[in-house]
Write a structure and sequence with these properties.
mainly alpha, membrane
């Protein structure tokens, strides 16, 4: 079964697809908050976000996430990528959702509860990614950077994604972001989990 991830115009059944997009983005932000509160290691981009948040000191985690997303979106210009409605929504809504989650959830003292946060965060992250990507209203800025580089260079998506994520992971770690067992667990499980959920949540025209 081939999964079509190209964008579909917003005018096509927006009543169904907009709630899917917004719900997926809100859930994605919540899953990020769970991973931060687990304090067992973040995904590469969130290692960068956390490192920048700690270094800047005056901006929230969500605000830094938004600013990084905007900076990555500017990289689309030389790649001649066009953002969709979902791309802009991704930058704005995820930042607010992760800040709201962090405001509500304290960091637990129990290692068992932190491990539960980690597992729940990874699974919810995959569900959320499949939900908003499945709405087919435009990729997130980071995904668009990957596909744009693929189209311009001809290099494989796997190679480009690996290079990007290793780069942001290294920079984030040097800035003080949390790298740990959760980083490894996320790396090995997020792809298969997202692929699994996409088969149920992908929107077809």
């Amino acid at each position: 079964m081939a999964l079509r991830l190209d964008s579909v115009p917003l005018r096509v059944r927006p009543v169904r697809r907009l709630p899917q997009l917004f719900g997926g983005l809100a859930l994605y932000g919540a899953s990020m908050g769970l991973l931060v509160r687990a304090n067992l290691g973040l995904d590469p981009w969130d290692v960068l976000h956390q490192g920048l948040t700690d270094r800047i000191g005056v901006l929230s985690f969500g605000a830094v996430t938004q600013l990084v997303g905007l900076a990555v979106l500017l990289c689309w210009i030389p790649l001649r990528q066009r953002p969709g409605f979902g791309t802009v929504s991704n930058i704005v809504l995820i930042g607010f959702a992760v800040d709201a989650t962090l405001a509500l959830l304290p960091t637990p003292d129990s290692l068992v509860l932190r491990a539960a946060y980690l597992v729940a965060g990874i699974v919810l992250n995959a569900v959320a990614a499949a939900t908003y990507v499945g709405a087919r209203l435009g990729p997130g800025s980071r995904d668009g950077l990957m596909t744009g580089l693929h189209m311009r260079t001809g290099w494989s998506l796997r190679l480009i994604r690996t290079a990007i994520e290793l780069t942001v992971l290294a920079v984030g770690w040097l800035l003080g972001g949390t790298v740990g067992v959760g980083t490894v667990l996320y790396a090995v499980t997020i792809g298969p989990l997202t692929q699994l959920f996409l088969r149920w949540l992908i929107w077809s025209d």
